Amino acid sequence: MNRITLLISLFSATIGFSQSYAPPANQAGTTAIHKDSSVFVAWATGIDLKRGFLDIADTNFMISGSNKVSYGAPSEALYQAQGSSATIVSLGDGGVATLTFQRPIFNGDGPDFAVFENSFLPDFLELAFVEVSSDGEHFFRFPAHSENQFAVQIATYGTMDCRFIHNLAGKYEQGYGTPFDLSDLPVDALLDVDAITHVRIIDVVGTIDPTLASLDRFGNPINDPYPTAFASGGFDLDGVGVIHQKTVGLPEITANYKVYPNPTAGLLTLDFPIASDVRIIDFSGKVVAFFPAVEYQQLNLVEFQKGVYFAEITNASGKFTQKLILR
C-alpha cells in the first residue's frame, strides 16, 4: 500500500464516510414508519429467543448468577410495537430472535415489513442484522452497510448518526420502525420472497475488536455502543410490523363470525369463535385500521368518513370478508 492510499484509508476509518442514507424520523427524506401507521396490516405472532451474553468479551461476567441478558419477556416482541423503553425484550451480545407470523409476508411495492427498537434518542442506536426465510431452515441476510468510523470505539452510551446506517434494524428511535424491502435480497432458489414465514433479528456486537466484531456487507466492523454489560444490553426488540401479508388464496370461512350492526353509525361489534386478525379496508383497497388477535371487541369508527368499507378477518382456518356500510 502506498503512502497516499494509506493516508486515505486512515482518514476514512477515523471520520467515517459520507452520510449516504435516510435521516432521522420526522425529517425530510426519512424512511422511518411510526408504529401507528395504517401501512401495517399484521404483526409477529410467535418468537423463538436465544439470549446473548452480557459481555461477549468476558463471558465470566454475571448478573444474578447468569452471563446472559435477562430483561423483558419474549412476548413483549409480539403484536404491535409499544414505542416504550420498558415493553421490549433484550437480545444481548449476539442474541437472536426468530419471529413468525400468522400469514406469510410477500414482496410488494416498497418496504414489506419494519423492525422496531426502543432507542430513547434519535442518535443512541443499538443495531441488529435482519434475515428472512421462507422455509424456517435457510435464512438470507439483508445487505447491511455501516459508514461509521471504526478506529475509535463508540462507548457504552455513545451516539451515532442514522444517516450512516442502511439495512440494519435499530436505525430509528423508539416508536419508529426501520423498513426492509425484500427486493434488496439476491435471487436464490432457496428463498421465496413472496412467502416469507420467518424474520430473524441478530444483535450486532458493536465492538471494533477484530476477533469479535460484527461485519457489514463490505467486511467493515459495525461500530455501535459497546460494552452494554447490563441485563437489558444489546438490541432491544419492540416488534416486527408487516406491510405486505399474503391473504390471497385463503379458504373462505363464514360460520359463527359476527360483525354487527351493519349498517352502522360508527359503533361496531366483532364476535368470533377464535382469535383473528381484523383489517378495515376502504373502497379503494387501502387498509385504514388493523386489530390483531380479536375474539370479541367493540370498535368505534365514528371518526371514519361515511361510506363503504370491508372487514377482512383472517386466522389459521382461512379468511372471512364482510362488507360494511358506515352512515
Strand and helix layout:
Blueprint: H1 3-15, E1 33-34, E2 42-43, E3 46-50, E4 89-90, E5 96-105, E6 113-117, E7 128-133, E8 140-141, E9 145-146, E10 165-166, E11 176-180, E12 196-203, E13 236-242, E14 258-260, E15 267-282, E16 287-300, E17 307-315, E18 318-326
Antiparallel strand pairs: 1-11, 2-13, 3-5, 4-13, 5-12, 6-11, 6-13, 7-8, 7-12, 9-10, 14-15, 15-16, 15-17, 17-18
What's the CATH superfamily of the largest domain, by name? Galactose-binding domain-like
Fraction of residues in β-strands: 25-35%
Second CATH tier, the architecture of the largest domain: Sandwich
How does the helix and strand content classify structurally?
Answer: mainly beta
Q: What's the average pLDDT?
A: 91
Q: Which consecutive residue ranges, at least 5 long each, have pLDDT under 50?
A: 1-16
CATH class of the largest domain: Mainly Beta
Separation of the first and last Cα atoms: 74 Å
Order of helices and strands: HEEEEEEEEEEEEEEEEEE
- The total beta strand count reads 18
Q: Give me the Rg, rounded.
A: 22 Å
Largest sheet: 6 strands, antiparallel
Q: Count structural domains.
A: 2
Q: What would the CATH topology of the largest domain be?
A: Jelly Rolls
Q: Give the overall shape, derived from the CA principal axes.
A: elongated
